[in-house]
Amino acid sequence: MPASSSPRRLHLLDTVRGATLLSMILYHASWDAVYLFGLPWAWYGSRGAFWWQQSICCTFILLSGFCWPLGRKPLRRGLVVFAAGLAVTAVTLLFSYPTRVVFGVLTLLGSSMLLHTALQPVLKRVPAGWGLTGSLFLFTLFRPVNAGYLLPAWFGNTIVLPKALYRGLAATFIGFTDPGFFSTDYFSLLPWYFLFAAGYFAARLWLPALRQSRLAGLHIAPLSWLGRHSLWIYLLHQPVIYGVLWAWFALN
User: Which conformational region is residue 66 in: left (phi greater than 0), alpha (psi within -120 to 50 degrees), or beta?
Assistant: First the structure.
């Protein structure tokens, strides 16, 4: 999410971020229409809709890690994004408890930025290629950790984790999801931090080439504008969507 501090702005990153943000807005509008206003749309519960949602969150997290080396004051940025995540949690707990957001994507991104800042003295010594490979391996390994095991089912042999790990909010924040926990938007540190780290190592590998590429200047003005203001738009889009849908369904 941070903007580039390079003299030559990498407009491509703003455009990709903006396109992903637009996709997220459409996805959340669909969610509200189906689950809050009762719109009958069977496809929204399908595998296709799941992959739509996954494409959005994976792109955001990877892109946030990719942009981490470009941002100034990463500690401050991490604190701001983490605080924004806490604000979303507080508002939903107070005003929309049945659809509350606890440990949502902003909390994850802020936490990843802060953790990455603390680990940077070590991570900068890791060769970028090995770091990218290792991060993707660990993301795959921990992908089903919320469900109580390691290694996805398609791997063949999963590793079941002790149920004793899955107790309390602190464990849930890490990735060991308490059975009584509920959130409409949940991204734990495990496995998602490893996807953030993969974006960081990808930037170390390919950022120099990207700076020299003509693609870096790709600029679709409306999408780039969305990308440059992504945090505020993320914070405000749900109330706006809800208001528009409420008016639409009230009048029809």
Answer: alpha
* Structure token digits, residue 92: 């939903």
Angle between helices 47-67 and 105-123 (to 10 degrees): 40
Domain boundary assignment for the chain: 11-251
Q: Describe the chain by its helix, strand, coil percentages, rounded to 5.
A: 75, 0, 25
Tell the residue number behind the tokens 């993301």, with chain if given: 139
Q: What is the enclosing helix (H) or strand (E) of 194?
A: helix 189-212
Helices then strands, counting H and E runs in the chain, come out as 9, 2
- What tokens appear for 13 in the block? 């990153």
What span, in angstroms and rounded, lies between the C-alpha atoms of 110 and 99? 21
Q: What is the pLDDT of residues 130-181, one digit of tens each?
A: 999 999 999 999 999 999 999 887 777 889 999 999 999 999 999 999 999 9
| CB neighbour class for 145 (10 Å; exposed up to 12, middle 13-18, buried from 19) | buried
How far is it, in rounded angstroms, from Cα 226 to Cα 119? 30
Is this prediction's pTM over 0.85? Answer: yes
What is the C-alpha separation between 189 and 110, in angstroms, rounded?
10
